Amino acid sequence: PDASLDLAMSLGVLHHIPDTSLAIKDISRTIKPGGYFLCYLYYKVEGKPMHYRIIFSLVNVSRFCISRMPHSIRMLIARFIAISIYLPFARLSRLLLRRGRDVSNIPLHHYAEMPFVMLENDALDRFGTRLEQRFNKEEITAMLLDADFDISSLNFSAEEPYWTFAVKKNSGSSLTN
Predict the structure, then answer these.
(1) CA gap 107, 84 in Å, rounded
(2) Which residue has the higher pLDDT, 171 or 84?
(3) Could you tell me which of 22, 89, 98, 156 has the fewest CB atoms within 10 Å of its CB?
């Protein structure tokens, strides 16, 4: 029901639906004034080096094709991608991290300490879904403002994945759109 939650969380979902802004408004409606929203949205790869953005573009083409295959095939391909791409990059990043090196521009570096099951799940999430939207801070801030959140309380993660954020619902608000 409206205004029934002290905390709402959406981690890795809203970027896969057509109208993320409307979904955030719907979530806002369910949060009590003064309650909190914890969310993760895919971030745009702004500020990354050219090689990173080229790899990202190639991955998007692959995702477009793979996401249209039958589910069982998508799962097999995701497992293969997790084993052959995610795992080597993640373990290389772990090795370099342990040697005190900066790994921030190595693709998939944020998987360095994660177990294989997470790599496999995220490969399926990345390649198996047809709709994937990405946002920058300004777009997220605008959506939250439009959904009656207190932007002064907005706190983005300083580490990847960047657009993990927490924000407080305006006190005394009553979003009715």
Answers:
(1) 13
(2) 84
(3) 98
- Dihedral sign for Cα atoms in the order 54, 158, 145, 24: positive
Q: For 140-177, what is each residue's pLDDT tens digit? A: 999 999 999 999 999 999 877 778 999 999 986 554 44
Token reading at 37: 């929203």
170: number of Cβ within 10 Å: 20
- In sequence order, which residues have a C-beta less than 8 Å from that of residue 4 and are 6 or more positions away? 30, 32
With a pLDDT cut of 70, the percent of the chain lying above it is 97
Strands 31-40 and 149-156: unpaired
Spatial separation of the C-alpha atoms in residues 56 and 59, rounded to whole Å = 5
Convert the chain into a string of H (helix), E (strand) and C (coil).
CCCCEEEEEEECCHHHCCCHHHHHHHHHHHEEEEEEEEEECCECCCCCCHHHHHHHHHHHHHHHHHCCCCHHHHHHHHHHHHHHHHHHHHHHHHHHHHCCCCCCCCCCHHHCCCCHHHHHHHHHHHHHCCCCCCECHHHHHHHHHHCCEEEEEEEECCCCCCCEEEEEECCCCCCCC
